[in-house]
Write a structure and sequence with these properties.
This protein is of the alpha+beta class. About 50% of the residues lie in helices and about 20% in strands. The protein has one domain.
Amino acid sequence: MKPLLALCALLTAGLLLTGADRPHVNRAALTAVEKNLDRRLETEVVESSLLLGMTRGVYLEGYGAVFTAEVNLASGPGISAFRPKLTKDDIDRVRQKKLDRMAVLKKAMRETLVSAAASLDTVPAEERIVVGVSLFHFSWEDTAGLPGQIVMLAQRRTLLDFQTGRRDRSTLESAVEVREF
């Protein structure tokens, strides 16, 4: 019985050491990236009233850090007793405003990827940094050409190489995977 207990103690100690050797991604580091993305969205992409909830980040061991947000790229006119129906011009204006803001949103997402890679120094270099933004759409909207979600991801090492000048913008663009749904 004692040899079995000794073996269990050794195995447990070995597992604890293995876990202790691995750097821990703490909540404070994730919070800093969350606040950075919220600030970018509010100041560069949309008014703060169109940020539909705060960014949330999570670290998935073996995969990387994932950050999600939800925004409405443009407010729309309301339907009321005085305006029971929207005009085609109203719908077209909202659609065009959203299309115009797509490039700004994608730029902010890319910049967040790069800055997150630098600040999340305990995320292993071979893991990923992911930024996903869900886009709100009104039921009356013309959503042709507008995704409901954009996800950008890249290996942390690639993002760090860009930040330190070992990669140029064109290689970064090809290394960042962009998915639109």
